[in-house]
Amino acid sequence: xxxxxxHTNFSSxxxxxxxxxxxVSEKLGLGLIITDHMDYKHHVPGEFIFDPDEYFSExxxxxxxxxxxxxxxxxxxxSLEEIEELKNNYPFDFxxxxxxxxxxxxxxxxxxxxxxxKEQAYEEYLNxxxxxxxxxxxxxxxxxxxxxxxxSVYEDRGLYYRDFPDLIDAILKxxxxxxxxxxxxxRWIHDKNTVNNFIEILKRFKELGGKYTTIGSDAHRPEDIGxxxxxxxxxxxxxDLKPVYYKERKPYxxxxx
Length: 257
Ligand SMILES: [Zn+2]
Ligand SMILES: [Zn+2]
Description:
Blueprint: E1 2-6, H1 18-28, E2 31-38, H2 52-59, E3 67-74, H3 80-89, E4 94-98, E5 101-102, E6 105-106, H4 118-135, E7 141-142, H5 148-151, H6 165-177, E8 181-185, H7 192-207, E9 212-216, H8 229-239, E10 242-247, E11 250-253
Parallel strand pairs: 1-2, 2-3, 3-4, 4-7, 7-8, 8-9, 9-10
Antiparallel strand pairs: 5-6, 10-11
Helix pairs in contact: 4-6, 6-7
The structure holds zinc ion (2 copies).
One zinc ion binds near residues 5, 7, 72 and 218.
């Protein structure tokens, strides 16, 4: 198994030395793909961004079959040139596409939700995601589709397929038509409601022709590597999907028991 989403010291919100990450992953018998944050034009200058030359020169010596070098790119439509340049000029194994910012607002903060019903906020978020998957080809796997449920301000924060079937279908269809993966982010799958909601979405992905899923802990500390992977394996079994990892931007199947 591979943990396809972890953050090390090149991410400004992580405190993880690559050597500690390797030690933990070896103990757990996991391969790793490092996916440090690259969020261009963050409102705090210098945050969530790293120097790719430094990243490759420092990490190249650790690179092997079980330690691959990727990136999590925060999608925003005012940074497309920078994203294209990064993708074209550096030899990443794997690129995660993520939505952290919607129409210029970081959805981590309450301001995004102010004056919006849950339906309006979630619809805006999903529409932004549809733009990403429809018009951009820079990524291999779509990260944490239900990211908004971590930070939104509503009493019931769940992302239910039944509330936005057309929008979610359009996103899943686009992913499957372009052979992209849909990520199972294990950082937030500890409660049953979240798991069941996401299973419904993954099953629909499979129905619409989706093939690939990546499993990632989104760990920012060594102790979170591989967290909830037992649940993730159960989810892929229930949804009849096959997990993959990426090397040189190509997917490889992972056998699970
Ligand atoms: Zn993310
Ligand atoms: Zn992440």
